[in-house]
Amino acid sequence: MQYLVSLIPLVFIYGILVLGLNLQVGQTGILNLTYFTFVAFGAYISAVLSLPPADPSTGITYILGANLPFPLTTLLAGCAAAILGVLISFAALQRLRSDYLAIVTVGAGYVIYTVVGNQANLFDGWNGLFGISTPVPQNLGPNAQMLFFSGICLIFLVVVFTAVERIRRSPLGRVLRAIRDDEGVVAAFGRDVFRLRVMTFALGCFVAGVGGSLLVMYATAFNPQSFLPPETFIMFAAMIIGGIGNNWGSLLGAAVVPVAFAEATRFIPEFGHAGLVEDLRAVVVGVLLILVLRFMPQGLIKERPPVDRDQPARADQGLARLLKGARS
After folding, report:
1. In 3D, which of 5, 6, 1 has the Cα closest to residue 219?
2. Tens digits of per-residue pLDDT, 244-303?
3. How far is the C-alpha of 242 from the C-alpha of 3, rounded, in Å?
């Protein structure tokens, strides 16, 4: 029972993370292959903001140590990830598209990974941070603590889902999907495509930073091994299997791929060489992704662009103006 309860906040946290990725990739077409780097950056910033100042006598070193309370640490972590996203986007989004953009994001992720690991004075290097506090009353039992934390994660999930869904249904959402489908046409109509892409990239990174903050509070520890490329692959698999461009599909994919399928492999009996069952997790996710792309290329819940009820009226008005101009 305690194990099942411990999975509840993971479902909500991964739901937040996949929603942020879907905003970038699914709705705007920004192929960010280092998405989990921003999750990790938010996790690190949240950790050092919540921890007390580092004690040199312990051999553990890290910046800040501001000892700030929750939820301020989570909001600041999201802002820090968004700022990092803006800095990278100026190099990745201004002149690069498609595959070139993806390569730049991967390169940026490896640079950050190497710097964080080798500069021990930032986040204690390869050893990472631990003993991170959680906003849960300590007088509760283990299950009650996990349910309390699940409630906090659910609140953030509802806020994030409401925000990204409102964006999807807004005129801005229609422009973002147009950029995804053909940004040249959007630019021809006078829209500043670069500014819109930077804004969306920053929003997605903010969501990633918030999710990273909740993730590090759930795990109470974090190190560079926690944001290797397979983590981003899991996020992409969840988004694609759930339904790319669909926020409900993102929630479904987050529950199915990183939680249900990944955790279900823990119950496979050990066989073969050591670590074989662990490796099968990636195999299961990969096979599932192939099957979905083969038989359901739009995912379990395909994208349904919101219908603009005023569109026929606007079209009639535009046609009337056109005819009036032709007669004159």
Report:
1. 6
2. 888 998 899 888 887 777 666 666 666 666 667 677 777 777 787 788 778 888 888 887
3. 25
Lookup: tokens for 77: 């972590």
**Is the separation of the CB atoms in 259 and 10 below 8 Å?**
yes
* Length of the chain in terms of residues written: 328
pLDDT digits (tens, 9 = 90+) for 96-147: 666 677 888 888 888 888 898 888 888 888 888 888 888 888 888 888 888 9
pTM of the full structure: 0.85
Say if residues 24 and 177 touch (Cβ distance below 8 Å): no
DSSP 62: B
Name which of 181, 298, 174, 297 is nearest 248 in CA terms. Answer: 298
Burial degree of 294 (CB within 10 A; 0-12, 13-18, 19+): exposed
Pair type for strands 221-222 and 129-130: antiparallel
What does the alpha-carbon distance between residue 78 and residue 210 come to, in Å, rounded to a whole number? 5
The residues, ordered by sequence, that sit 6+ positions from 213 with a Cβ below 8 Å of its Cβ are 42, 43, 45, 46, 73, 74, 77, 78
β-pair partners for 222: 129
